[in-house]
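Renewal narrative, Specific Aim 1. Our central claim is that a sequence can be written position by position from structural information alone. The example that follows is taken directly from our test logs and has not been curated for this report. It begins with the structure tokens describing the chain, in the order in which they were read.
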């Protein structure tokens, strides 16, 4: 594997037709903080995160993923990554240069093998953040992003080769074969996961809570408010993290989680887990059963942003 130049996941950018409804959901229900807003764009922060924002929301005629953003340690690493991508024939969107979004910085953009826009940036200013207090059911940070792909092995190979992500674990099913790869760019079990789906789309975006109590309080708050729950609460085996999945107003799946496993990367060996085993999908046995109807909820709509760079 080539040198790892990506450090962590920064944010995900979403475009939606009903901007005001989605914005209200993220602030009032999901408990993100609007850091900045301007003419149909909202930058939403997590209270415990030094990132200027963890979700960027944009008004658009069609729903799509605008981009997934990752961090790098330095501008030199951004340059090195861009050079590696260009030499490998990856489709570039922009050469390394100044980033014109809150926090600034130095970054580059390119398409992944499925046509998603990926951004990698460094030297982004740190947001004034705070310690999330006990019993406070607000997201601390962005945990991970899961992406649907119609060609699971091709997409895994692309992220391994070009961005030096490492495989942590795999889910398989006796009838369907391998269905999900958990990929890491630091000791956290996964910063992204790749799911086998019928088309390229967003599977879900996950947000880390302070702890178990705060995770359960957040789950309960959303249930009481009538937000549609898809699956949970429970605890996965792969990653050992808790999960509660909900549907946002535009049909995107969002997750509250906590206690994602931190790995000793030098000693770790990937597992192959059979997710037809109920103890794999939910160690606690508290979630509604995983079945084809639950799984289908996260197929989402085919993404309209494939190989089309977002306007900002």
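The sequence written for that structure reads:
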């Amino acid at each position: 594997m080539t040198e790892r130049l990506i450090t962590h996941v920064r944010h995900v950018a979403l475009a939606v037709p009903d901007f005001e409804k989605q914005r209200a959901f993220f602030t009032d229900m999901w408990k993100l903080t609007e850091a900045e807003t301007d003419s149909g764009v909202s930058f939403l922060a997590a209270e415990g995160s030094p990132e200027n924002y963890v979700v960027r929301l944009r008004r658009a005629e069609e729903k799509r993923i605008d981009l997934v953003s990752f961090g790098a340690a330095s501008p030199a690493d951004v340059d090195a990554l861009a050079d590696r991508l260009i030499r490998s024939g990856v489709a570039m969107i922009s050469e390394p240069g100044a980033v014109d979004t809150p926090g600034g910085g130095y970054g580059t953009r390119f398409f992944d093998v499925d046509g998603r826009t990926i951004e990698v940036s460094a030297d982004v200013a740190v947001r004034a953040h705070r310690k999330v207090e006990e019993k406070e059911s607000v997201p601390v940070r962005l945990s991970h992003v899961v992406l649907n792909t119609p060609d699971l092995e091709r997409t895994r190979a692309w992220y391994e080769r070009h961005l030096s992500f490492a495989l942590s674990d795999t889910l398989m099913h006796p009838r369907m074969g391998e269905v999900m790869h958990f990929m890491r760019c630091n000791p956290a079990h996964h910063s992204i996961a790749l799911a086998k789906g019928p088309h390229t789309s967003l599977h879900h975006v996950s947000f880390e809570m302070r702890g178990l109590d705060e995770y359960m309080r957040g789950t309960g708050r959303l249930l009481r408010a009538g937000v549609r729950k898809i699956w949970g609460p429970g605890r996965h085996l792969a990653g050992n993290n808790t999960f509660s999945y909900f549907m946002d107003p535009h049909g995107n799946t969002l997750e509250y989680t906590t206690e994602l496993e931190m790995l000793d990367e030098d000693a770790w060996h990937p597992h192959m887990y059979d997710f037809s085993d109920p103890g794999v999908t939910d160690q606690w046995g508290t979630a509604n059963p995983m079945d084809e109807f639950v799984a289908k909820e996260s197929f989402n709509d085919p993404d309209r942003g494939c190989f089309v760079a977002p306007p900002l």
